[in-house]
Amino acid sequence: MSLQTHLAQIPEFRRQNKNFRHFLVDVLAISVLAVLCGADDFEEIALFGEQKEALLRRYLSLPHGTPSADTFSRVFERLDVAQFNACFMAWMQEVLPPEQVGQICIDGKTLRGSGPKPLHVVSAVARANGLSLGQVAGTGKGQELGAVPELLALLDLRGAVVSLDALSCQPAIAEQIIGQGGDYLLGLKANQPRLLAEVERHTQTLPEAAAFTRWAYAADRTPLRYQVWTQSDLRWVDEDGRWPGLATLVRVQTTRHADGKEPVSTTRYSLSSRAGLTPEQADGLVRGHWAIENALHWQLDVTFGEDGHHLREHHAAQNLTLVRKMALNLLKQDPTKRSIKNKRKRLAWDEPFLERLLAALCAPAT
User: Fold this and answer.
1) Fewer Cβ atoms within 10 A, N terminus or C terminus of the chain?
2) Rounded to an integer, what distance in angstroms lies between the CA atom of residue 59 and that of residue 82?
3) Where is the H repeat-associated protein N-terminal domain (predicted)?
């Protein structure tokens, strides 16, 4: 089904006796197209609709022209977030079937422009192509731990490795992932102090020859050496069986080799239920987890300017974030060898290019 068809399945929530002038699917479709072309707020979305009305009429009903900025604002304030997210996730399951996902990276981001009690949105991203799969929001970063199980429950985890940072390194989350048919990769830090101390004690003397080693450069061009070890005999880690399915311990040591200075090392640990992980495979999963920072958070902040938008109404903020993710996913699926920023500009400037996208997303109006 096209994205327009998925949007059309969201129930109309406005009172029928109010004689509203614009179909809900038209309001949502224009919003996605406007954000694709560079619109960042409701005023700009409405302006896009005005300027592109002739083109939009070929694919949308628009019985009374294009909506005003106030109409977009009212719709996004009242649109049910869960239903909109379900629409987004259903569309993405068609675009990227669960068996093709591989690794699901889950992480949270605070919407800094969403008022004195800012929203904290927990998102899932497919590592393979950086496509966003869904989101759940809470108020403040402290709500992330509660939002993660809710988001997991919405996802098809069968066959996937689900990676989360240390905040979510909890037996209950591990159990939920296993119960839904997935494997976990959980960062281990000081929020599990006894386990961390035991892991540090048992991994002090791992043989260097057993490590997978690679070199990279920091942002300042300082050489970095990454060494990754895995261990599968973990009876000493989980003697009381608190961690369901635990099969592999991952140790990553990063050493910074700055000119004229002594090397400085930091060590990170992860727990995984994926059996038989080699050090090289573990390195790929650990590195892959941070793809969510570059593939999603950075794009939303830098390309879409998300942190600069001030929407104190939380429903509107969550819904507009979903629109940005729809737009970002569409841009990532375009095979053109251009940056996301330049693809947005081309869509705004090149109407034949925009119409080709419109034709793929929407059926022609009758």
Assistant:
1) C
2) 27
3) 5-92
Nearest to 21 by CA among 57, 63, 52: 63
Distance CA 318, CA 221 (A): 38
Burial per residue of 151-171, b for 16 or more beta-carbon CB atoms within 10 angstroms, e otherwise = bbeebbbeebbbbbbbbbbbe
By percentage, how much of the chain surpasses pLDDT 70? 92
pTM for the whole structure: 0.89
Greater pLDDT, 145 or 264: 264
Q: Is the dihedral of CA 257, 258, 263, 264 positive or negative?
A: negative
Q: pLDDT-derived band of residue 254, with 50, 70 and 90 as boundaries? A: very high
Sorted by where each begins, the domain ranges of the chain are: 3-79+334-361, 85-295
Asked if residue 272 has pLDDT above 90, the reply is yes
What is the b/e burial string over 311-339, where b = at least 16 CB atoms within 10 angstroms of the residue's CB? beebbbbbbbbbbbbbbbbbbbebeeeee
The one-character DSSP state at 352 is H
What ranges in 307-350 are assigned the alpha helix state H?
314-333, 340-349
Question: CATH for 85-295, among 3.50.50.60, 3.40.50.720, 3.90.350.10, 3.90.1170.30?
Answer: 3.90.350.10
